[in-house]
Amino acid sequence: MSNLVLAMLVAVAVDHWLGEPPVRWHPVVWMGNALERYAEWVLPSHGALSDGDHDWMAFTRGGLMWVALASAVVAIGWGVQWVALAAPSWSAGLLLGVALKPLLAWRMLRSEVQAVETALQVSLPGGRERLSWLVSRDVTQLTESDVRESAIESLAENLNDSVVAPLFWFVLFGLPGAALYRFANTADAMWGYKGVYQGRNWEWAGKWAARMDDALSWMPARLTALALALAAGGLNLWRLRREASLTPSPNSGWPMAAMAIAIGVRLHKPDVYMLNEAGREPRAADTVAAIRLATHALVWLAGVVVALQTMVGLGWVSWLVGVFL
């Protein structure tokens, strides 16, 4: 078994049994802290602009800082990988898997979505409060169905962002690739707003972060949707594409649409999009079904990677990884 496959299996096993590392040792938390620290330089709080202003200076600062921080993340990832692979051959894959684990978060995602459903069974306000841990939207006016829809949407979207995409970039470029993706995704979450957030207009300052996350998520999002479709026993891909195009995001609509069609529910955001409009309002059992389907999708993807590695050595993928490993 190659170090690539062993590292992925170890990362998933550690995630399953141990969950997230302590906050003080979590590299994604470090990325967030760095982004927060330099946000004031990128977009000074006293310089908020009205919507529609073309602030090229803010755009330039945002791009430069993104590149600087991303370069540091890649360099650290390469250094950690070099140390791991310098260890005895029997332990190299194990160490690389332990280093990879903090860059993916399936157990936490699954638990948080289930926690929303559990809280919702007790009371609607409790479900809303728990959902606020998962989403940035205003939850105070959401109905029971809205809360459940938002939780399922978060599961589908973050299945890509927190699991599939980091593993995709790890397969291609090793630990530096996975680390770069998680940095890009974190930067988009913190800087990639399309307007005013907390008194500052990020429309231009965060544009670089938003576009880089879109680019790095493009292929993984579609692979996530395909895996969900396969796990569901097959979907009409033309219909999936049509539904995915209804969302403003070029990527998140794919796994959300696949999830909605596969479990037969409607998922919507008022005045923004409606996925699988003919579907029913989600029930408690649909949250369980969504988690089960996402788990099966990950098994599908893992099986494909292991099979390719076993049968054809991943071909050009092995060559790419070899450059970085």
Helix-strand category? mainly alpha
User: For the terminal residues, how far apart are their CA atoms?
Assistant: 15 Å
H-E order: HHHHHHHEEHHHEEHH
- Tell me the major beta sheet: 2 strands, antiparallel
Low-confidence stretches at least 5 residues in length (pLDDT < 50)? 314-325
Overall 3D shape: globular
What is the spatial order of strands in the main beta sheet?
A: 1-2
Quaternary structure classification:
single chain
User: Total domains, how many?
Assistant: 1
Percent strand = under 5%
Number of helices: 12
Q: Compute the average pLDDT.
A: 90
The total count of strands amounts to 4
Our Rg estimate from Cα atoms comes to 20 Å
Structure commentary:
The protein contains twelve helices and four strands. The model is unreliable at 314-325 (pLDDT under 50). Helix 2 (27-42) packs across helix 7 (144-191) and helix 8 (207-231) runs parallel beside helix 10 (253-263). It is 70% helix and 3% strand. The strands form two sheets. Strands 1-2 form a two-stranded antiparallel ribbon. The chain has a two-stranded antiparallel ribbon with strand order 3-4. The protein has 325 residues and is mostly helical. A hairpin with a 3-residue loop joins strand 3 (267-269) and strand 4 (273-275). The chain has one domain (3-324).
